[in-house]
Amino acid sequence: MSRFYVGSEVGQLKKVLLHRPELSLRRLTPSNCEGLLFDDVLRVEQAGKEHDAFQQVLRDNGVEVFLLRDMMAETLANPEAKSWVLDRQVNPLRYGHALAKDVRSFFEEMSDKDLASHLIGGLTVAELNSSCGSPTLGVMNQTDFILDPIPNHLFTRDTSCWVYGGVSVNPMAKPARKRETVHLRSIYKFHPMFKDADFHTYFGDEDRNYELSTIEGGDVLVIGKGAVLIGMSERTTPQGVEHLARGLFKTGQATKVIALELPKLRSCMHLDTVFTQMDIDCFTYYPDIMRDDIACWELTPGDNEEIVFTSVKDGFVKAIARALDLSELRMIPTGGDIFEAEREQWNDANNVLTVRPGTVVTYERNIYTIKNMEEAGINVLTIPGEDLGRGRGGARCMSCPMEREGI
C-alpha cells in the first residue's frame, strides 16, 4: 500500500504531483488570459520542454513524479468516478436540460484520456457540434467555451496540500479555479493509488458552498515538528485557516499553526512567492514583504475541540524558530539591488522547491538570488523558465508533494 505523508518542507521529497502544460494552455489568448488568471500567454511547446526538464531534475534526485492528466484518466476509468465527476461539472443548472444532455453524452463517449484532457483543457461549441436547438447554445459563438479551460492546474500546489498524515482539498478563491478541486477530490476518492490508502482529509471534501473559507496550498508551509505556517493572502482567508487548523488539531496531526497576514497583492499572491524553506533552519525571503512587524498569530488546540488564538508580539521569525526548537534562523534575502530584487521576486526567485535539506530547485534566470543561496551553502539545481515563469509560479507552485520525510 502506498504511503502518503508530508512531514516537512525540506525532508527528502519522495512523491510529487505535477501537471505538464497541454490543451488548457494552448487555449490561453491575450483576450482571455486575464479572466483565466494569467498575466501573459505562453509558448506551450517551449513551456512543455521546460516542464520536462523540471520533471527530470526531480527524478534525478530520487523523486517519483506523477502527472495530473494521467492520474485523471486512470481515475475516470472507474465508471463510478466518471459519473461522480460529470455530475459535478455537467448539469442542467449550468447548461439547461437539453444542452446538459448533449454535453454529458459527448463526454461519456470519449476515451478516458481525451475526457481528462477536455475536463482540464475545456470544450468549445464547435467541438461539441450539438444540434439540440437550445437557446443557451444559440447565443454562443463557435469558439466560445461550453466548459472553460483550467490552465492554473499547472500549479498543483494550490488545489490540494498534504500536511503530515492527511490532505486538505482546498476550496479555491477564484471562480476560474473552483473546478480544479473536483478533479483532485475525484483522484483522492477513486484512484487505485489512493482508494485504500490510510490518510486524513482535513477540509474541502464536501459538496457545499464554502463561502469565505478559502485556502490555497501556496500559502501552506509544513515547517515540521507538528507545526504549520499559513499565509493569509489574496487567496487564503482567516476563516479558511481556522477550518484547516481545526481539522489538523482534531486528527492530532499538528500541534501548532502560525498564521501570517500578507498584503493582498498579485505580486505576493501566496506566501510561497515571498518565503520558502530551504533547510531545517534556512529560509529564502523577500524583505519588502516579509518584515518582522507583519501581524502574526499562533493557533493551538484548546479544550473541547476549541482553538486558542495567541497574538505573536516578537515577530514571525521568532515564532517559527520556537516551533522548530531553534535558537535562530538563517534568513537569505532575494538577491541584487532594489530593482533586481523586485524583478527576481516577480520571477519566482523565492518560490523554490526543496528536494532534501539544503538542496533546492529554482529558475536559472534568478541569478542574484541564486548567488545569495549558494553563498549560504545551499545546493541550487536550476531549471529553464522563460515560458513556464510567465504563469507567475516557480518550482514550489508547480508541485504538490504527496510523500516527504520529516525533520
Automatic annotation (TrEMBL):
EC number per UniProt: 3.5.3.6
Coiled coil location: none
Main localization (coarse): cytoplasm
Protein name: Arginine deiminase
Catalytic activity field: L-arginine + H2O = L-citrulline + NH4(+)
Family: Belongs to the arginine deiminase family.
Assigned keywords, A-Z: Arginine metabolism, Cytoplasm, Hydrolase
HAMAP family on file: Arg_deiminase
Record SUPFAM superfamilies: Pentein
EC class (word): hydrolase
Active site: 397 (amidino-cysteine intermediate)
Top-level taxonomy: Bacteria, Pseudomonadati, Pseudomonadota, Gammaproteobacteria, Oceanospirillales
Cell compartment(s), UniProt: Cytoplasm
This protein's pathway: Amino-acid degradation; L-arginine degradation via ADI pathway; carbamoyl phosphate from L-arginine: step 1/2
